[in-house]
Each structure stands twice: as structure tokens, then as C-alpha cells.
Recover the amino acids of this structure.
């Protein structure tokens, strides 16, 4: 073995140690099972896509690691207490870092989720994912999954081999939420670091902190502590079974580019996006979705050619109001309202699966 590389045995030992605290604490505070008897546990399917939760490093105290090194069966086996909450089986959808998440995996994942939740013997789905793009995948699934059954995503900021890895407890809590009947009808949920987020509300706010995910605009859906769930509210916007979007017959998604506004911005990147075949452009604008006069002129020119142009903001919180900073009605723009640039891109791609007027796209941003 090359120096610095970890054997499979060493990796398994470290993963088991990282999970030990979950086992101990689960005995001290049993998970909420409601009226479910031990002999009739809900059946949850775990779909793994990779990410840090399945990552590994050569030591347990280093920042660098490789995502997607652990398979779904290893993830399930590493948290045996989760099997006391639900009957689990796993499927490997992909094993990549979420920086490499792509349309092919999105479509495969969404279609598989829809197939599973349509099965009467499946109570819910848990999806493991990397943190970098989990908010985009969660929002995408929130718009295309056609069921009220719980679909819960989880992730980790530290790899499975890390000292004080956060993945095992996140996974345990995600299973507990998916097994809870009160999770039904709340859209796609993201469970991480004891918090339950709605897919439309969460965003990543720190590059390395364990408490990286916040729902700054509308707040948490609930909390979960060692399997004990507490729900506060319903999610914002239309979702899942109430969504108008469908992937039936869809094999590709339209291109939509995000361009960040900045001091002295010209129209070069706007024109380049159009030349590259973008059907939509999202501007991560300054302040209330604003941009320079030069960029406004370039964007309006593309809007007249039929490219749908959305004004979002690079600011973390707040709403981009229609006809506030710019005359959207006159310029032919869409205001993103409460959606950040990355969620605006997801929503616009689905909206553009069929021809729509700017008015209809704005309606969609209002409702979702």
C-alpha cells in the first residue's frame, strides 16, 4: 500500500467510530415512532448520490478529502440504529461530489423517486447528497416529484472518516423524519445539523461550518434531535403533488445561465450566454436585482429576442420586487421575488420546458 493511503479495514474502523455516538445516544433517547409498532416499521428507500457524507480522507483531521468513496450499503450499515426507525434498503444513483451534479443524474434521480413513491409498500425516500448543490437538487425535486410521501435529503460537511463526523447523525435524523407521518405533504425536506429545512427556503452560507445551512427568508420547517421531530410550519410555494411541472417524456432541460452583476458591468457575458444557446438568463444583481445601465441595455435586447431574463440578487436575503429598481413591464424582465439566483435558474429551466410568455413566467415565480 502506498504511504498516506488508507486500507479498507482502517476506513471501516474509522467510520464505525464516527457512528458510535449515534448508537449510544439513540439508546439514551429512542427515536419517535408514533403509533408504529416495531413489527410494522415504515419502509424507506435510501438513494445515494455521493458527496461528503460518503467521502474519505487519509487522516481524520485534514481539510482535504475525496467525495463519493462510500457506497449506500456501507452508509446504512454504519448507522444500525436507523434500522430501528424504519425498514431500509438502498440504491446507488451516482457516487460523485455534488460540484459535479448534472442533468443526467437529476433526471435519473427524479424519475426513480417518482417510481418509488408510487409503490404502495414504500413509505418515503431518503437521499444522500453533497452540500455544494443540495439546495438546487432539493428544489428541483420539490417541483417534479408527484407525491405527498416524505422525500428527505441529507448531507454532511465532514467526510465519513473525519474526527466528529456529522454524517451519521444527519443520516439517522433524516430516516426518522422520513418515517414520521407528519412529514407527509411538506414537500422535499433537507435535514442537516438537527434542522429541517424546506427545499424552497434553504441556502448554504458557509464554506466549512457544520451549521452552514440556513432558511433566512422564511425560517425552518422544524427540528429533529436524535430522531425526535418537531414540525413548525408548512413550506412556502406550490410543490410536489401540487406542482404543474412534469418530467414525462423529458430527456433534456433547457440551458439557463447565471451571470453575476458587478461594478462596471458591460453586456459581454449577457451576449455570450445568448450566443451559447441559453434560453434563459438569470442575473445575480446587486441590491434589489439591479445592474449597470449598459448591462440593462444588453439584457433588454436579448429579452426582445425571446430569451427569458430574470432579475435575482446576489444578496443573501430579501425580495427582488417587480418594477421596483427597474421597469420590468417595459423592459420585458421577470423579477425573482424571494428566490435566489440558483433557485431561480432551477425554476426557470422547468418553466421553459414549454413556450411561455413573460407574464406566465412571472406568474410561476409568484406561485412557486
Amino acid at each position: 500500500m502506498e504511504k498516506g493511503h488508507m486500507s479498507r479495514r482502517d476506513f471501516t474502523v474509522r467510520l464505525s467510530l464516527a457512528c458510535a455516538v449515534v448508537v449510544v445516544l439513540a439508546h439514551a433517547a429512542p427515536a419517535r415512532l408514533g403509533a408504529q409498532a416495531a413489527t410494522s416499521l415504515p419502509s424507506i428507500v435510501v438513494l445515494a448520490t455521493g458527496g461528503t457524507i460518503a467521502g474519505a480522507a487519509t487522516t481524520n483531521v485534514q481539510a482535504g478529502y475525496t467525495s463519493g468513496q462510500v457506497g449506500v450499503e456501507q452508509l446504512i450499515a454504519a448507522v444500525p440504529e436507523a434500522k430501528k426507525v424504519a425498514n431500509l434498503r438502498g440504491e446507488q444513483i451516482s457516487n460523485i461530489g455534488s460540484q459535479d451534479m448534472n442533468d443526467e443524474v437529476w433526471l435519473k434521480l427524479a424519475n426513480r423517486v417518482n417510481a418509488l413513491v408510487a409503490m404502495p409498500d414504500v413509505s418515503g425516500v431518503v437521499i444522500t447528497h453533497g452540500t455544494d448543490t443540495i439546495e438546487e437538487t432539493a428544489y428541483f425535486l420539490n417541483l417534479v416529484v408527484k407525491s405527498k410521501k416524505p422525500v428527505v435529503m441529507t448531507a454532511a460537511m465532514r467526510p465519513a472518516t473525519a474526527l466528529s463526523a456529522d454524517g451519521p447523525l444527519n443520516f439517522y435524523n433524516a430516516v426518522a423524519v422520513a418515517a414520521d407521518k407528519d412529514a407527509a405533504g411538506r414537500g422535499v425536506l433537507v435535514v442537516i445539523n438537527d434542522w429541517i429545512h424546506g427545499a424552497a427556503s434553504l441556502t448554504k452560507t458557509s464554506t466549512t461550518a457544520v451549521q452552514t445551512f440556513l432558511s433566512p427568508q422564511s425560517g425552518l420547517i422544524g427540528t429533529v434531535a436524535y430522531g425526535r421531530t418537531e414540525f413548525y410550519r408548512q413550506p412556502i410555494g406550490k410543490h410536489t403533488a401540487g406542482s404543474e411541472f412534469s418530467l414525462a417524456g423529458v430527456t433534456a432541460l433547457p440551458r439557463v445561465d447565471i451571470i453575476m452583476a458587478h461594478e462596471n458591468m458591460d453586456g459581454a457575458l449577457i451576449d455570450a450566454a445568448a450566443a451559447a444557446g441559453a434560453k434563459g438568463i438569470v442575473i445575480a444583481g446587486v441590491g434589489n436585482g439591479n445592474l449597470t445601465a449598459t448591462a440593462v441595455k444588453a439584457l433588454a435586447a436579448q429579452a426582445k429576442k425571446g430569451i427569458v431574463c430574470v432579475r435575482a440578487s446576489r444578496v443573501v436575503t430579501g425580495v427582488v420586487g417587480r418594477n421596483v429598481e427597474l421597469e420590468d413591464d417595459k423592459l420585458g424582465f421577470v423579477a425573482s421575488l424571494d428566490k435566489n439566483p440558483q433557485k431561480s435558474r432551477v425554476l426557470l429551466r422547468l418553466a421553459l420546458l414549454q413556450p411561455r410568455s413573460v407574464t406566465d413566467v412571472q406568474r410561476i415565480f409568484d406561485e412557486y
